[in-house]
């Protein structure tokens, strides 16, 4: 079972989770990024990103190397923005829609306390799937370390390692 984690992270929480998952599952890792970075400080951080998420924007991404045919399982990771997935991930899924069809899918989201369920549902809708192999929701795992996050991460990785 060859797997890859495809994620976007603005401030490092999703990156933290992606690295932990990669370590425990042996998955490859692809970090995507918009070619024009979102402001990551002050009021603009929430304004620009939030607006872009609400409007369902699909920003152009920096070049990346992704060979879908090499993978059986794709693990998507995203912060929650305005109860939605982040625009860079939306672009990635849109640009690779045909190649992603039929793949096994797992998801993880990082958030501060509201809207993760909605974001996961929107992600599944975008992928045109009803359910996925494994799902994980973490509360700011880098900025607010907790036993609960680590336990959930461990369980998620065990689920991933159990997929045939
Ligand atoms: C533009 C923007 C919108 C956000 N919207 C939400 C939200 O709707 N609900 C929530 O719980 N957290 C929200 N957050 C917080 C992030 O989802 C959370 O801090 C996440 O862990 C950040 O991941 P990162 O460090 O990988 O960027 C938002 C953050 C930003 C920058």
- CATH fold name, please? Rossmann fold
Give the assembly state of these chains. single chain
N-to-C SSE string, H for helix and E for strand: EHEHEHHEHEH
Largest sheet: 5 strands, parallel
What is the structural class? alpha/beta
In DSSP terms, counting alpha (H) and pi (I) runs of 4 or more, how many helices?
A: 6
**What's the helical proportion of residues?**
40-55%
Overall strand count? 5
Overall form: globular
Average pLDDT score: 97
The domain tally reads 1
CATH superfamily: Flavodoxin domain
Distance between the termini: 7 Å
**Fraction in beta strands:** 15-25%
What is the CA-based Rg, rounded? 15 Å
Q: Give a list of the ligands.
A: flavin mononucleotide
Would you write up a description of this structure?
It is globular and about 45 Å long. The protein has helices at residues 13-25, 42-54, 87-95, 97-100, 116-127, 147-161; strands spanning 3-7, 28-31, 73-79, 104-111, 134-139. It has a single domain (3-161), classed as Rossmann fold, CATH 3.40.50.360. The protein contains six helices and five strands. With 164 residues, the protein is α/β, with parallel strands linked by helices. The model has no long low-confidence stretch (mean pLDDT 97). Strand 4 (104-111), helix 5 (116-127) and strand 5 form a beta-alpha-beta unit. The longest helix has 15 residues, at 147-161. The site of flavin mononucleotide has 23 residues, from helix 1, helix 2 and strand 4.
């Amino acid at each position: 079972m060859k797997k890859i984690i495809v994620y976007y992270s603005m401030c490092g929480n999703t990156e933290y989770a992606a690295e932990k998952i990669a370590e425990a599952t042996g998955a490859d890792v692809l970090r995507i990024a918009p070619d024009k970075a979102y402001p990551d400080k002050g009021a603009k951080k929430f304004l620009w990103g939030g607006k872009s998420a609400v409007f369902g924007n699909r920003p152009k991404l920096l070049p990346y190397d992704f060979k879908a045919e090499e993978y059986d399982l794709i693990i998507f990771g995203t912060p929650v923005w305005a109860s939605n997935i982040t625009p860079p991930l939306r672009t990635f899924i849109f640009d690779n829609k045909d190649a992603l069809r039929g793949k096994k899918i797992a998801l993880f989201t990082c958030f501060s306390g509201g809207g993760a369920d909605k974001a996961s549902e929107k992600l599944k809708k975008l992928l045109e799937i009803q359910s996925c192999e494994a799902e994980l929701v973490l509360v700011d795992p880098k900025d607010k370390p907790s036993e609960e996050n680590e336990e959930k991460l461990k369980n998620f990785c065990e689920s991933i390692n159990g997929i045939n």
